[in-house]
Amino acid sequence: MVTMKEKTLEELQDEFNSLTRKRNQTILDLEEATKKLVELAEKIYEKSPDYVKIVCPSCEGTGIINTEEGKKVKCPSCQMRGFVWARKHKGVDKLNDD
Ligand SMILES: [Zn+2]
Fold this sequence. Notes:
Number of helices: 2
Helix content: 40-55%
Largest sheet: 2 strands, antiparallel
Distance between the termini: 84 Å
Structural class: alpha+beta
Bound molecules: zinc ion
Number of strands: 4
Shape: elongated
């Protein structure tokens, strides 16, 4: 019969610390991947003929939103860039082809 050996306090602490390090590294990796994805999406939009930059409809291009409480906050739609990418309406190309 196999008996489970209970872990010592030191073993439990080591396991806890090891998993904490792994968790923190995973968060850093996730942040790095998200940053790269945002940069890649930007490059894809710039190269794509289907997307155009438009003035941010949420903040009118100011990058700042006035909240109902009267506070000024960073525009969540454009992240203070003042523009957002929009996909062209199919009718736009048809008009230009004439
Ligand atoms: Zn905006």
